[in-house]
Amino acid sequence: MSNHNKNGAVVFVKYLERCVAFYRHTMALAVTHEEAGLVVLESDTMQLVMHAIPPSIAGTFEITDPPQPREDASVKLFFYVDDFAAARSTAAEYGGRVQAADKEWAWRGFRACDGVDPEGNVVQIRRIEY
């Protein structure tokens, strides 16, 4: 996968390995680069950079279990998935969660449901509605 000419995002996280595993498995992203404190994940159409929060800052807050949604954040990531049930199961396996089916909603040709990654960052899954 080329890392040029892709849109993407950087997510700052306290527990880098845990969040990389969540996005890698739940959203089917491939690890294309790793270095101390930083991992790049990609699909054919996007790049997601996971960046470790410096220890001096990471030590000032706790991540709850289960993670509390950071609903006051100014950005929400969304990813298209093939199967909502599989995404729910995989998200839970890797420390996050996706809301139950009764929380799904449809709009503009897609079905969506919100969830959180292992640190509470709100993430949405989507599926094209035919």
TrEMBL record:
Domain Glyoxalase-like as annotated: residue spans: 15-124
InterPro entries, per the entry: Glyas_Bleomycin-R_OHBP_Dase, Glyoxalase_6
Entry coiled-coil feature ranges: none
SUPFAM superfamilies: Glyoxalase/Bleomycin resistance protein/Dihydroxybiphenyl dioxygenase
Keywords for this protein: Lyase
GO MF annotation terms: lyase activity
Pfam families from the UniProt entry: Glyoxalase_6 (PF18029)
Lineage: superkingdom: Bacteria
Gene3D superfamilies assigned: 2,3-Dihydroxybiphenyl 1,2-Dioxygenase, domain 1
Name this polypeptide is given: Putative enzyme related to lactoylglutathione lyase
